[in-house]
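User: I'm new to structure prediction. If I give you an amino acid sequence, what do you actually give back? Let's try with this one:
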Amino acid sequence: MQLIAPDPRPRVLHITQPVDGGVARVVTDLARAQLAAGLHVTVACPDGGDLPARLRALGADVRAWHATRAPGPSIGGEVRRLRRVVGAVRPDVVHAHSAKAGLAARLAVRGRVATVFQPHAWSFEAVGGPTAALALTWERWGTRWSSRVVCVSDAERATGVRAGIAGQWRVIPNGIDTERFRPAATDTAVRALNPLLADVDPAALLVVCVGRLCRQKGQDVLLRAWGEVAERVPGARLVLVGDGPDARRLRALAPDSVLFAGAVADAVPWYRAADLVVLPSRWEGMALAPLEAMACGRPVVVTDVDGGRESLPAALAPRCLVPAEDPAALARTVSELLLDPPLRESLGQLGRRHVLSAHDVRHTAKAVADVYRELITAHAVPPVRAEYRESIHS
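Assistant: Good question. You get back a string of structure tokens that encode the predicted 3D arrangement of the chain. For your 394 residues, that looks like this:
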């Protein structure tokens, strides 16, 4: 009988409930880097969206995990299903992304496997009243089963500390693929290739907001600000790129100068078509959209929430940072930038240089690999695996 040698590669299990948006992009980027480094990568996520197909195309093992976005009575079944996945995969490290996966994964694993929890913005900031109190209670209690809590900004970590979460912290800023997100060779034909802009004056100034249409991203605040912007900058157009639970309500609020692009597979053409990119979030860890826009050489306006200030080079903050939920300040900043083309050009170049130096996804992947190496070494693995792990991460 032929014996099959055990697979010596370190085994990483990523768990995510969101299959679109920023969390899905982070999981995809990490999976790509870890597969290239020789790890065995499995991702447990719900069916739906294009995340499972993208991951399989990279060579990852994808396990269907049915889970709803919000906590509720379904959590017991979700934990049981996830426990079966963990048992089948036998990972060396579990990496849980965002609130729901963080809840289910830590209940399923309970510290028996090295567990990394990455909140991607804290759950207790997303809700109010008794639900927020329950979320905070869980995060304080569940951190005992987190070998590391990875935050994407110092501000996100500070929010957790102030909330009484006693985590084993590591701050690893978000990174993006700077080869994919880069300026166009020429901007003259970018808009002409976009059918949604066919009837828009090529000379019109274009503001773009990329993000899930939901309360967190604050598109309603941007729409309240847009009336003043349209008065000060006649002919300007706003495009909301994305879909989500607030789509119908936002469409009802929007004037004719606002266009809805819906969900898109690739936001790069929208960044390149924009004169200015805005993300008026109510809360974040560190949003990807501003980093992607800056990598494409576009100036950005973001709100001063967790990760917002840290995503900008220091020279951009006075011009590009506004208070959250302040339509007047947002309108003033957006209008001033639209009316100053040389300043926009300068800010776009500065932002591009900043992303190249501080937010390249390769730096992010290496920092996450260092966390895994620490945890795997600490969990006293067999010598052959320990030697292999050291070689692939060196």
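You can read the tokens as a compact description of the fold. Here is one thing that stands out. The first helix runs from residue 21 to 36.
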